[in-house]
Amino acid sequence: MLADLKKTMSSLEIAQITGKPHNDLLKSIRKMEVAWSKITGGNFSLSEYKDSTGRKQPMYELTKRECLYIGTKFNDEERAKLVLRWEELETQKQLSPAEQLLYNAQLLVAQEKRMNAIESDVQEIKAQLTTRPQTFTIAGYATLNGIKMPLKLASNLGRKASRLCKIENIIPDEIPDPRFGIVKSYPIEILEEVFNDILVN
Predict the structure, then answer these.
(1) Which pLDDT score, from 0 to 100, does residue 93 have?
(2) What is the rounded CA–CA span in Å between residue 176 and residue 130?
(3) What number is the average pLDDT over the span 176-180?
(4) Which of 2, 20, 34, 144 is deepest in the core (most CB within 10 A)?
(5) Are strands 8-10 and 56-63 parallel, antiparallel or unpaired?
(6) Angle, CA 4 vertex, CA 29 and CA 30 arms, to 5°
């Protein structure tokens, strides 16, 4: 049975099953480990994995008993998902090597999708920190769209955006920047035109 192949479940997989952020789950596990160690005399098994950037990150490998203990802090729906997942693992037939590879690949794809979604959110937050609603700095717009922006190119684009604003009788916003003091923030339609010229060229 698959249970013979898989004796533990990682905190990463638990986070995927329950929909919990992995960092929040790690914090909960660390807090609960104190009582577990006191009663059982053993600690949870700490391991690691590589994230999408190749950096090593911590995770736990937990037995079924440890998982169900951790699950006592979950809400009813999350706890039910965890119990059903263990039941599925224990009742599935032995996987062939090809099926095992497919299963592992599916887990990796799901993890990559989560990491890509997180990175996308981070890029948007970075852009928001350097812009006002409906307007963006050159750097903010570039960050939002994943475009590398050397200082010289940013300066050239800023001048073009300022000329377009003058033609359209638009007064750019000015916002504080910790590196350059006060910088201009342009309407998105101006930036789209300026960046479109760069992308076309």
Answers:
(1) 55
(2) 9
(3) 72
(4) 144
(5) antiparallel
(6) 5
